[in-house]
Hints:
Layout: E1 2-3, E2 10-15, H1 26-34, E3 38-45, H2 56-73, E4 79-84, H3 93-106, E5 110-113, E6 119-121, E7 124-125, H4 128-144, E8 162-166, E9 172-175, H5 180-188, H6 191-197, H7 202-213, E10 225-232
Parallel strand pairs: 1-9, 2-3, 2-5, 3-4, 5-8
Antiparallel strand pairs: 6-7, 8-10, 9-10
Amino acid sequence: MDQLSEDWQRGLVIVAHPDDIEYGAAAAVARWTGQGKDIRYVLVTSGEAGIAGLPPAESGPLREAEEIAAAKAVGVHQVEFLGYPDGRVEESLALRRDLAAAIRRHQPELVVLFNFGDTWAPGYANSADHRAVGRSALDAISDAGNEWIFSELTDAPWSARWAIVMGPKATHAVDVTDHIDQAAASLAEHRRYLEVLSSEPIADQVRAIVDHATAPIEGFPAERAVGFELYHFAG
């Protein structure tokens, strides 16, 4: 397990829903913003279908506000929502175009994606939104650097150097031992969402989730770590 290179300055995290980042990469984001890196978030939906008993018209603004607060807890101050329908995102040319446009706007060297495999864990199907967003975003990284694929886009082409994917196929890792408290504070901002998920105290939920997301990785010399699968892109 290799150390992920940190020879870059601008990163863009692309996920489907509020809380996706906080369930995996928030500790790494806290490390990077602490190094002075410019990290931004793009969320394809507002997570409006994610709270049982709360209509989407009320849930969407609430979850956006929770995500903006969660981002601030790890030093991120630019959060963009694309407005796709939660739970009904499709892998499509339209989504690729919108994500390519976002990549051109934000000009990241590194793009961070969520697990988009068919399974979340052995025996557990992954969300359809996670699959659609991750796969479309991986294609959009190449699209963003090509002037002809979506020639209607007005921003100049932009080529990211790498993508990294949170998930079970990690090839590289980041030492987050010093950033656990920030990751916990970030996840705790999703209070209304966590209240519906479980009757357990929020602090207990947060600690269990963060401990799982930052567990030691075999072969990597850190007390707490986050793993990623690394993809390279031609500049």
